[in-house]
Amino acid sequence: MEILYGARGLTVAEVRERMAEPPGYSAVRALLRILEEKGHVRHEQRGPRYVFSPVVSQSKARRSAMKALVETFFGGSTEQAVAAFLDESRAKLSGAELDRLAELIAAAKKEGR
């Protein structure tokens, strides 16, 4: 999806060209077809080729992916997901990033009351 968001429509071959370690053509085509069945991408025919484009905004796709991640790996617990992320990222986060996260948590507390 990230590859598609960075372009105005791509063929399967063009998607593969932008991948670091692309699987076979058929695998990419199958994945795009699955994404289309799920309503994430659409295609239009240009000559003999299908050109694929995202249907949903990147922010909506991000929220959907995060929700699925939290449900799948953390039993729906946002707290556990955030704790795991912080545990994994602690050494990589700058003071400014930690301050911003603290601000987000404070705002969430305030809204929750």
Strand order across the largest sheet: 1-2
The stretches of 5 or more residues where confidence is low (pLDDT under 50) are none
Largest sheet at a glance? 2 strands, antiparallel
Shape call? elongated
Cα distance spanning the termini: 37 Å
Total E-strand runs: 2
- The computed structural class is mainly alpha
* Gyration radius over CA: 19 Å
Helix share bin? 55-70%
How much beta, percentage-wise? 5-15%
Number of domains: 2
What does this structure look like?
The chain is mainly α and 113 residues long. The protein folds into 2 domains: 2-54, Orthogonal Bundle (Arc Repressor Mutant, subunit A), CATH 1.10.10.10; 58-112, no CATH class. The chain is 62% helix and 11% strand. A two-stranded antiparallel sheet has the order 1-2. It is elongated, with a radius of gyration of 19 Å. The mean pLDDT is 92.
Topology:
Blueprint: H1 2-5, H2 12-17, H3 25-37, E1 41-46, E2 49-54, H4 58-74, H5 78-89, H6 95-112
Antiparallel strand pairs: 1-2
Short description:
The protein contains six helices and two strands; from the N terminus they run H-H-H-E-E-H-H-H. It is mainly alpha-helical and 113 residues long.
